[in-house]
Design brief:
Elements lengths: L1 E2 L2 H9 L3 H13 L6 E3 L1 H14 L4 H13 L3 E3 L2 H12 L4 H13 L5 E2 L2 H7 L2 E2 H10 L7
Parallel strand pairs: 1-2, 2-3, 4-5
Helix pairs in contact: 1-2, 1-3, 3-4, 4-5, 5-6
């Protein structure tokens, strides 16, 4: 197994630099189910951001590409369940990176995710920081300072 950095996957998916594409393609061509490429959760998030922000691909296009990559036999995700959950949330309109945070928090047993991001709160059911504080202040716990 070999680890795959974001830039290798970006070059392979975008085919935008002939020299680097040839090398990235060679890396992908060498991958097998028994000798896969390992993609960390950080790389999944970076892929989404680079492809949507730097390359200007549509969100749905990027989600489709990431979904196909995640299902490839020669690819292993660090946390496949979180990637799959994030892809489902992203297909329903959530930001993929936020959805990865949500999936990881859920898997860790977090009761909630607190944010300043109204869109993420609306799409993922997170708590806005102001509302969280108001709830906390109105119902202090014995262990609270």
């Amino acid at each position: 197994m070999i680890g795959l950095d974001t830039n290798i996957i970006v070059r392979y998916l975008t085919q935008d630099d002939p020299d680097q594409v040839a090398l990235a393609t060679a890396v992908f061509d060498s991958l097998r189910e028994a000798a896969p490429g390992y993609v960390t959760t950080v790389v999944w998030a970076e892929l989404y951001w680079v492809l949507t922000r730097s390359y200007g691909f549509r969100r749905d296009e990027v989600v489709d590409r990431l979904a196909a990559l995640s299902l490839a036999d020669e690819i292993r995700a660090e946390d496949p369940a979180s990637v799959a959950a994030a892809l489902r949330s992203a297909r329903r309109g959530a930001d993929f990176a936020d959805a990865l945070v949500d999936a990881a928090a859920n898997r860790a047993g977090c009761q909630e995710v607190v944010t300043f991001d109204k869109r993420a709160a609306d799409r993922l059911g997170w708590s806005l920081a102001g509302a969280w504080r108001a709830r906390r202040d109105s119902n202090p716990q014995p262990s609270d300072p």
